[in-house]
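Quick illustration, no need to memorize.
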Amino acid sequence: MSTYDTIIIGAGHNGLICATLLARAGQRVLVLEANDRVGGLAADREFHPGFHASVAQSFYALSSDLVKDLKLAQHGFELSSNSLNTVALSLGESPVIIAEHSVSGVSADDSSAYQKYRDQLRTFAAALSPFWAKTMPGIGGNTLKELFTFAHMGLKLRMMGKDDMLEFLRVASLPMRDLVDEHFESDALKAALCWDGLIGSKLAPRSPNQAVLTLLNRMAGAHNGQHSLPSGGVRAFVGALKSAAENAGVDIRLESAVKKVRIDGDENGQRCSGVLLANGESIDAPRVVSNADPKTTFLKLVGTPHLEIEFSNRIRRLRCDGFVAKLHLALSDLPGFTGVDRPDGRIIIAPNMDSIEFAFDDAKYGDSSENPVLEVLIPSLQQQGLAPSGQHVLSAQVMYVPAHPNGGWDADRRQALIERLLALLESYAPGIKDLVLGAELLTPADLEDQYQLSNGHWHHAEPAIDQLLMMRPTYEAAQYRTPIDGLYLCGAGSHPGGDLTGNPGRNAAREILA
């Protein structure tokens, strides 16, 4: 029987980050991963012979400070110095090209409005940025340090100036449609700008709640929310995290699924004592950190007999309906998109906000849309080794696709969606169907099955206002600690949420070491 100071369940990027920081502080750390490779949704997968992709396809929220803190450059990863342009396509219309500081293909009024829009959002994002990398205090009974965090947040908002502070309070909970309608005329521009507040969530442009906050969280990254893809791509990031963890002394065991978190109890309460693996092996540790989603952690790995009924009911009620599918295409040549000189940016196929809204409506009522909307990237243009020489990989996020549609998924339904997506791509990139050597469609149900991810939700729990900040995923588990002594969370279901930020993993490590 092996003994460790800390066991981390799941070798996704947050788990590896947490493990590295704990090991550097002198702990003996074991990471257990159910799959045969590290990285979680960022893991490299060969979806067709010689062709590789990952579910997480680009960077837009990763902090340069975190990359420096982990010394990832020493392990082969550096953020790109440049961001990708976003190209919004509409049939019969000229492309709209969105860069970090400018937009083209729109009217002079929209171009001018874009500068003001970005400047204002960057002001808001800068004010909130420090708090994504901190533990958000609970409400009531706060320590002096926690009260200082609240005071710091209030000060950062007040330092924006009265006008900006009032405007932030007004727009923070607006639907994305209302926000962009106030600034722009171009339908394609508005749809593309909406996308970055919605992707990965069960939200549409008209949905109330937190899309603006999600957007501001993503804008805290190295390129202010603009997407980037360094030469090594997502694969290099995962490789660097693994190397950094091993260099710090972390033990990583693959194909080691955890069946149960072991809980001991006496008159002094309950606490973790280790884990039981699916193969029957038991491993001791006084501390267990779960990078799994909250429902998996509490309802499957811990079990409701060890939880107060009110707490377990809150976990059951967490909203985590995955609505994004991934399409990977192996292509014999580089496709040509109408009006695009070279498809080396991020392409949004959503002609207007109604096209996004209507696709959402179809999924909301249990079916994927007849007219899906897409975010398309050809990562093989930036990253070597994803495809044989002269050939390419197309990677697309497909919104909206329910995890469990009416009637469920079968081979016919899956193939029908692939054909629908290929027909849509053909209308924007004539001839692309003839280039397809192989295709892979990963529905949210596939993500649930292959990555042990409840309902296939990217963020482990919907980033709604009642499941954010000091309420993420719910109170009594929102500060990385849980009601069980020695059990912590470090995954996307923790503050500040999903995407490739690494903040939940870093924050959890800091909380454990505090």
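Residues 324-402+404-442 form one domain.
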